[in-house]
Structure formats: structure tokens, C-alpha cells
């Protein structure tokens, strides 16, 4: 099977291809871009085995980003050399923060002390840099203000850190797969990325925005256009699937000691080059006619920007794999849109108390499909998402919450022809004859016949390419990584994984599920890598280095 293999310096070792429009084109574009940026001469590639590892490669890709959603896009934007500065005319409403910004107005935010700037700020993210960057981009947003950003952006080519962004689909990630009939929870301007206002993009496309919230398909188009207009395409590779991300060796300071497979002399040579092949990233790219092209890339740093929508959470009950049980909103929405559930006498069962479950309730309700809504929490639970949403801005979700509160079904009551709520209940089993068994908190069981079921209780990221499915990176290493319950444990200001050096994470993986906050991860990572790059360059000059990358 043909494959491309990136071992920097890129020209040194790779396969030759006969099909220049598929496999060859993939690699040639990489060679041209990274060869130019790393200052290496490009020459012909000898044919090699895909599994071969080369010990004489002296340079690796500085960064490989896994995931091409808004997290990966924003990180690519900043790694490409775009730098935020305080605008000359800007006055931040937070006077303390503004005075700090004035102290180093001549420096980009990337080059400043993020811990110092973040001190004392409060917001809806647990990550201080996310709160900092959000208040710079959207001052007083949580107070209902729509103030302009206090930042201006400059392109500084010399600040560029060569990188590669790998994603399964087009830039935008999971936004391309979301149910198109629902509005986003966030305002359109909160979905935008630095340097391109969402409203300006919509106006240029002659799209009429009738409200502050928009549909996911609009957001997906915006992200795809953003990559193009910002000149980031050369960093992105679509249709790529990661199968393995593994460490090649570890410093003693990395926690696990030195790999026995690497000799002391080889390790010394690596360190002398000031750039280390810390990571080996393997996977495949889908090309024409469904064929797979395997690849292997060495990287000094890896950034995880996968999001958390890959693997829907499951109830782990009997019959959950039966064909009438769905686990995602797109699946359920497709069944409704195709008319498969209309005219059915039996209701649909919707499990969950979050916004995705509410979307499913609205989808069924608006199509005159009766609903049984089951969730484990009390309707008075203060952590329910509905209690955090203003009624005027989110009337449809408050309609669902009102039904959850007022149409609960008692032990002996018959089902409502439109909607019936079952708080503090759980599903015990699904039966092949399209029945389900529910159990209340008191232990009372009831059985209902269904036309379909949608289990919408959250999702987990797919980190199968990491050891232990990535669980070891979380705050609780015995549990899967989740956005709320067990995010990846990171340094608060660099976003580097606490338990794995040179591995970074941002976005939903670290608890930032909203686009407005995940941008802080891009700032933290860029700040960290830029700082380390300057230290390496200084050391490189001290040692009398010549060609190559520091």
C-alpha cells in the first residue's frame, strides 16, 4: 500500500509515487511548504518501507495539531505568525487589566506574562488564560455588552512556527456534522475567530442574519472560509485519521526515564541538535475511491484539539444496540426528516437533560411526534443548563424546561399525547419488540412501547491513538476523558499536559466547550512554544550554530 512518511529533514526519506495526483501530491505539498520553512534543500526521495525508522533525521516538525475544528484553526492562525497587540485607541473597561496592558503596549500579548495579566479575572471558564483572552476579544460579554475587541492583529512572518493540522473532514471539524435546523447556543460573534468578524463574513456572502444566533451550517462555512482567507490552507490536511501517537524516548525529567531502545550516544546526538523527535504520529489519509494512504510524521510537540464529540456516551443497558436506539442528534434528526417517525402512534423516548436532548425534544415536538422525556436529575437541580440561559435569548429551550417541570408523569398517570416528562428516572432496558423499561428513584418500574429512542447524554473524545485511551492525562486517570467530569489536566498558563511533556491540549478536552473560550488555549500554547523557541535560538547562537532550525 502506498504511503507518505515525513521524517524531517523532509527531503531525506520518503516514498516515491507513480500517482502524482493523489499520494505524490500529498507529500509534495508538504515538502514544498516545510522544506521552505525549515530551510532545508529538497531532493528526491528513496523508496522505503512504511515501518522503517531513521536515526539520522536531524529535524522534526515543531508542532503537529490533531483536530481541525475551531481550536485547531485558531492555534494554526497564531502559530503562523499572527500576533495580537493592544489597539492604540482601545480602553478596556476593566481598569486594572487596562493598566497592566499599558505597561507593555509595545509587546504582543503572546510575549507578555499571561499569569500576571490573568490575575484577578473572573469568567465562565476554569482556565485563566481563556478568561483573559475572552475579555480582550469580547469585553464585558457576560454583562450583556457588545463592545469591540481591544486587540489589533499583525502578521509577523518571523514568528511563524511550522506546523501541520490533521483533521478527518474539512476545516471546522464537528460543526460540519451538526444538526442544521437548530440555532447555536452562542451568539454569532462569539463563534468567530480572530481577524474575521462573523457578521462581516455573513454580509460578504449576502447572508441575512435575522438574529444574534445562527445555524451550525453557517458556522461551519465560516470556519472553512476562515482557513482560506487567512492563508492557512498549506498547514491543513483533510481526511486524515490518526492511529497512533507515541513517544520515541523520554528525558529523565519527563517522568518515565529514558527508553531502552535509544542508546546514550543517539540520545546525546538528538540533544545536540536542539530539536528532539519526541513524538511519532501515525495514521492514514483517505483519498480517491476510498483507498487509504498511510503516513508517519515526527514531531517535537503535539497539540490535541480533537473536541469531545467523537464517541457518544452510552447507558450500558440491555438492548442499547437495537436498531431503533439512536445515540446522536444527526441520526435522530435524519430519521425525523425522512418521515420515518411521523404518523406513529407510539412515542419516541429521549434520554438526557442537556441541550442536545432538548434539541431532540423540539425536533420531535415540532413534527407532531409524541415524546417521553427521561432524565436522572430533579427539575429543580441548579446545575441544569436551562437555569444558566436567559429566557429572552433562548425561548425555545425554556419552553422545553417548562414542559419538563409542568408535564411530569406520576406513577399512575397516562402519557400525554404530546409530551411526558419523567424526572429522576433511568432506563433499565430496551426490548426487541420496541419496548423500554424505566425505573424511578423509588424503584417503581414502568414499560412503554416506542417508535424510536434517542440516548443523548453527552459524548467522549476518541483518544484511542494514545496509550490508555488518553485516560492517564485526566485529573482522574482511572476514568475516560470528558469535558466536564474529567478534562485533561494541563498547566493553567501553557496548556501543556501535566503528565506528558511536549503534549498540549485545548478546547473541550480541557473543559472549554464554548468557542469563545477555546481561543485562550491557542494563546497559551503559542506563548509557551514561542518562549521555548527564543530560548533555543539563544542557546543555538551561543553554541555557534549555523544552518538548521533552533
List the helices and strands and how they pair.
Blueprint (H helix, E strand, L loop, with lengths): L3 E3 L16 H16 L22 E6 L3 H10 L2 E5 L8 H9 L10 H5 L9 H10 L13 E5 L7 E4 L31 H7 L11 H14 L6 E2 L2 E8 L16 H9 L6 E8 L5 E13 L6 E2 L12 E2 L2 H9 L10 E4 L3 H12 L4 E4 L20 H12 L12 E4 L2 E7 L3 E6 L4 E5 L2 E4 L3 E2 L42 E3 L9 H28 L8
Parallel strand pairs: 1-9, 2-5, 2-9, 5-6, 9-20, 11-18, 12-13, 12-18, 13-14
Antiparallel strand pairs: 3-4, 7-8, 8-9, 10-19, 15-16, 16-17
Q: Largest sheet, if any?
A: 8 strands, mixed
Mean pLDDT: 81
Through-space gap between termini: 35 Å
For this structure, the quaternary state is single chain
Class per helix and strand makeup: alpha/beta
The total strand number stands at 20
Taking all Cα atoms into account, the compactness measure Rg is 25 Å
Principal-axes geometry comes out as: globular
* Percent in helix: 25-40%
In terms of per-residue confidence, which ranges show pLDDT below 50 for 5 or more consecutive residues? 1-59, 255-259, 546-550
Q: Helix tally?
A: 12
The share of residues in extended strands comes to 15-25%
Amino acid at each position: 500500500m502506498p504511503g507518505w512518511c515525513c521524517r524531517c529533514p523532509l527531503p531525506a526519506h520518503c516514498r516515491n509515487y507513480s500517482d502524482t495526483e493523489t499520494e505524490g501530491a500529498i507529500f509534495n505539498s508538504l515538502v514544498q511548504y516545510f522544506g521552505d520553512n525549515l530551510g532545508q534543500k529538497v531532493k528526491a526521495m528513496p523508496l522505503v518501507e512504511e515501518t522503517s525508522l531513521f536515526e539520522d533525521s536531524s529535524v522534526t516538525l515543531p508542532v503537529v495539531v490533531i483536530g481541525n475544528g475551531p481550536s485547531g484553526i485558531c492555534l494554526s492562525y497564531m502559530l503562523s505568525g499572527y500576533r495580537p497587540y493592544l489597539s492604540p485607541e482601545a480602553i478596556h473597561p476593566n481598569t486594572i487589566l487596562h493598566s497592566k496592558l499599558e505597561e507593555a503596549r509595545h509587546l504582543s500579548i503572546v510575549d507578555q506574562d499571561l499569569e500576571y495579566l490573568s490575575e484577578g479575572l473572573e469568567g465562565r471558564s476554569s482556565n485563566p488564560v481563556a478568561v483573559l483572552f475572552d475579555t480582550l476579544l469580547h469585553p464585558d460579554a457576560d454583562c450583556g455588552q457588545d463592545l469591540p475587541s481591544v486587540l489589533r492583529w499583525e502578521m509577523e512572518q518571523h514568528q511563524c512556527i511550522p506546523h501541520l493540522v490533521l483533521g478527518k473532514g474539512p476545516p471546522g471539524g464537528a460543526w460540519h456534522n451538526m444538526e442544521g435546523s437548530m440555532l447555536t447556543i452562542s451568539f454569532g460573534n462569539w463563534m468567530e475567530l480572530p481577524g474575521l468578524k462573523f457578521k462581516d463574513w455573513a454580509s460578504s456572502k449576502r447572508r441575512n442574519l435575522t438574529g444574534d444566533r445562527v445555524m451550525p451550517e453557517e458556522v461551519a462555512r465560516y470556519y472553512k472560509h476562515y482557513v482560506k482567507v487567512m492563508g492557512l490552507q498549506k498547514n491543513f490536511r483533510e481526511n486524515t485519521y490518526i492511529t497512533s501517537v507515541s513517544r520515541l524516548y523520554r528525558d529523565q525529567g519527563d517522568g518515565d526515564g529514558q527508553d531502552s531502545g535509544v542508546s546514550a550516544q543517539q540520545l546525546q546526538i538528538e540533544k545536540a541538535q536542539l530539536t528532539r523527535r519526541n513524538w511519532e504520529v501515525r495514521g492514514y489519509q483517505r483519498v480517491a475511491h476510498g483507498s487509504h494512504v498511510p503516513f508517519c510524521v515526527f514531531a517535537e510537540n503535539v497539540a490535541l484539539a480533537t473536541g469531545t464529540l467523537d464517541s457518544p456516551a452510552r447507558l450500558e443497558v440491555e438492548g442499547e444496540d437495537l436498531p431503533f436506539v439512536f445515540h446522536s442528534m444527526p441520526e435522530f434528526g435524519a430519521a425525523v426528516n425522512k418521515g420515518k417517525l411521523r404518523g406513529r402512534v407510539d412515542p419516541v423516548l429521549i434520554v438526557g437533560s442537556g441541550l442536545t436532548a432538548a434539541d431532540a425534544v423540539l425536533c420531535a415536538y415540532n413534527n407532531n411526534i409524541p415524546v417521553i422525556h427521561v432524565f436522572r436529575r430533579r427539575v429543580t437541580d441548579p446545575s441544569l443548563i436551562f437555569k444558566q440561559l436567559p429566557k429572552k435569548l433562548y425561548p425555545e429551550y425554556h419552553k422545553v424546561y417548562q414542559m419538563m417541570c409542568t408535564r411530569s408523569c406520576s406513577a399512575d398517570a397516562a402519557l400525554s399525547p404530546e409530551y411526558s416528562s419523567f424526572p429522576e428516572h433511568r432506563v433499565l432496558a430496551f426490548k426487541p419488540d420496541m419496548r423500554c423499561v424505566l425505573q424511578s428513584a423509588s424503584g417503581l418500574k414502568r414499560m412503554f412501547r416506542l417508535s424510536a429512542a434517542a440516548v443523548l447524554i453527552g459524548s467522549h473524545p476518541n483518544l484511542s491513538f494514545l496509550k490508555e485511551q488518553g485516560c492517564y492525562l485526566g485529573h482522574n486517570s482511572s476514568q475516560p476523558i470528558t469535558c466536564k467530569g474529567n478534562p485533561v489536566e494541563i498547566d493553567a498558563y501553557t496548556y501543556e499536559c501535566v503528565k506528558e511533556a511536549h503534549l498540549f491540549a485545548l478546547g473541550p478536552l480541557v473543559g472549554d466547550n464554548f468557542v469563545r473560550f477555546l481561543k485562550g488555549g491557542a494563546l497559551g500554547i503559542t506563548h509557551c512554544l514561542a518562549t521555548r523557541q527564543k530560548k533555543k535560538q539563544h542557546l543555538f547562537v551561543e553554541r555557534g550554530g549555523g544552518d538548521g532550525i533552533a
